[in-house]
Amino acid sequence: MVRSPSRRRVLPPGHKPKSLVSKSLVSKSTSHNVTFKDHTGRSALMSWSGSEDEPSLPPLSSWVFYMVNPAVAQDFDGCAFQYGLENDRILHRGGSFRYEFFFLPGATPEECAAHYRGELDARGTIWRQIRKVKTALKKKKEEEGEGGADDDSVERSSSSDDESQDGTAGEQQQQQQLPGLVWPKNDRDCYFINYRGWFFMYPDADVQWGANHEDREVYLVKFDPIPIEWEEGETVKFDPMEHPIHSERMSARGRKGYEEGAVSWMENRKNSNWEVAANDATCEARGLGWESW
Question: In total, how many domains does the chain have?
Fold first, then answer.
């Protein structure tokens, strides 16, 4: 991965996510924009903000954006994009997130979904890193004489049903420093979504945000549908199994007080089982001093 020069800024008043809380009254944050190669060899970008006194480890929780407009420059400031999108819209709950940007000019939802699956095969899911952190913590406790031999949480998590999404050993070695992608294991995390995978498509050429950009739109793309148990005689308006890939156009920021946008949709996913597990693992890994996954 190639790290671009970091940009420093002061978080707005009250902006203190769990993993970014500073000991001082004013929490200084360092912005990270890191370029990397995706599984096809194309350049991609991941961006996140972290406390300046913490290791520069990207959060496991993430949102993925496919930049499909050919005019989008690949060297834009992803942290500024995140801040402009979320500003005055998020509730500051849950942990920190990284944004990943893939550049597929003119791509369709089906092509983006195929790329996402390829990235999953190459990098695996967040659960691989979560298991890695649990193993490290267990080893540390044993070395410090705190026991841990009876802790079978690592074994339980390693036998989870997401193994098929964790890629081959060779692929993992090639992508060992890249964090895995979100893939919920618990069906309750997919309630009202009815799909296990999702990402956003950004069709605009302009990546800047301002007062005149309130109605900018994105596409929420969901894939890998989950079967629904319908009640006998129930009228089925939408069966996800008939739509393996479903694309929905929505406002990016949402007009405040009027409609749900992409940001509020993202907010509703926070505090899910996968988000809590990913945030806990990120905090523990930073506490161990890890600089990469």
Answer: 1
Taking each continuous run of H as one helix and of E as one strand, the counts in the chain are 7, 9
| Tokens coding 12 | 């707005």
* Residue 100 C-alpha from the chain's centroid: 7
Residue 159 has pLDDT above 80, yes or no: no
Note the pLDDT tens digit of each residue in 103-115: 999 999 999 999 9
Which one, of 122, 262, 258, 276, lies nearest residue 202 by Cα?
262
Other residues' Cβ atoms within 10 Å of the Cβ of residue 5: 6
CB of 4 closer than 8 Å to CB of 35: yes
Confirm whether 144 is domain-assigned. Answer: no
Domain span including residue 92: 2-129+176-287
Residue 81 has pLDDT above 50, yes or no: yes
Q: What is the pLDDT of residues 29-66, one digit of tens each?
A: 899 999 999 999 999 999 999 888 888 999 999 999 99
Q: What is the DSSP letter of 22?
A: -
Look at residue 161 and tell me if it is in a domain: no
Query: Which one, of 218, 209, 211, lies nearest residue 251 by Cα?
Result: 218
Query: Is residue 45 a part of any domain in this protein?
Result: yes
Provide the pairing of β-strand 43-51 with 98-103.
antiparallel
Bridge partners of residue 6, in order along the sequence: none
For residue 237, being part of any structural domain is answered with: yes
pTM above 0.70, yes or no: yes
